[in-house]
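pinging the channel bc i need a second pair of eyes. not urgent but kinda urgent?? the chain im working w is below, pasted from the shared doc
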Amino acid sequence: MSLPQQHQSKTIPPATHLITHDNHAYDSIQNSSSTQTTLLSEQAHINDVFTENIPKRVGLSDMDGIRYMIFGSLFILGVDSSLFPLDTVKTIIMSERSRQLHKQNVFRMIYRIAKDEGILRFWRGLFPSVIGSFPGQAMYYMAYESTQEVVDKVLANNSSHGAIFTKGFLSGACAEIAGGMFYVPADIVAQRLQIQSTRGFVHNSRLYSGPLDVVKKVLRNDGIQGFYRGYFAYVGAYAPASAVQWGSYELFKGILFRTTTFLETRFRINSKPIPAKENIVNGISGGLAAICAITANNPLEILRIRTQLLESRNKKDAESIRRGYVQLASSIFHEEGWRGKL
C-alpha cells in the first residue's frame, strides 16, 4: 500500500533538494575549516618564529683555535691600550684611603695630574699590563669556549632562557678564573706604577724606576706569591662580574633576536628583514650586559685593587694582609662608609 503523493512529498524530499542542501552545508563546513586552518597556520608560524633559536654559535670546534686566540688577544689589547688612561684614573681613585680624596672632583684631579706630571702619566704601567694581557686573553677565550661546549653537552643543547643564561654564566666565571693566572701578576706590577706620583700626589710615596724595579722588589719582599696577592680577591671581583656579563649577554641576545624576528613576521616591516639585525642585537645585548656586570662588580673591584696594592714592608699594609680579605672590606666600610665601596 503506497502513501498518498502529498504525504510522500512531505516525508521524503526530492533527491535534487537533498543534494543541493548537502552541497551548501559541505561548502560552508569546508570554508570554515579552511579559515580555521589558515588562522592556526599563521599562529603556528608566528609561534615558530618567536621560539626560533638564535643563529648557531660559532664554537671552538668551528674555528682555528690558535688564530682565534691570537686575533682575539690583539683586538682586546688594542681596546685596553686605548682605554688605559681611564683605568689609571679609576685605579688612583679606588686606591685612595682618605675621605678627603674621595670627595675631590674627578676632573680637577685629572687636570692636576696632567699639569704636574704630563699627559703620558696616564699611560704609566701600560707595558706590563700589555705583557700580561696577551696570554691572559688567550686563556680567557679558550676557557670560555671550552666551557660553553662542555655545558652545552651537559644540558643536551637546551635552548631555554634559563639554559642560555646558565651556559654564559658558568663560561664567564671559568674564563675569568683561567685568565686571572696571567692578569693578576701583570696588575700587581702595572698598578704600582699607575698610582705612584713623583710629586707625592697620592698616598704611595714608595717610588719605582720602572716595571723591572717593581718585579725585583716584589720578589725580594714577598717572593713569587707576591705576584698572586689578591688573586682570590680578583676572582671574587671579576668571576661574578664576568659570569653576570656573559650570562646576561647570551640571555639578552636570545630574547632580542627572537623578539625582532617576531616583529618582522607579525607586522611584516617593509616585507624585509631588519638590516644588520644580528649586529644591532649583539650591540644592544653587550651594552645591557655591561650595565649588569658593572652594577654587580664595583664594590668587589675596590676590594681587589686595595688588596693587590698591599705591601708587606708597610706596617699598616702588613696588618691588613694578616687580617685578610673580609677584614679589609669591613675596615673600608667602617672608615669610608658606602662611598668607599662605590
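so DSSP finds twelve helices and no strands in the chain. and Residues 1-22, 42-51, 201-205 have pLDDT under 50 and may be disordered. — does that match what u expected or am i reading it wrong
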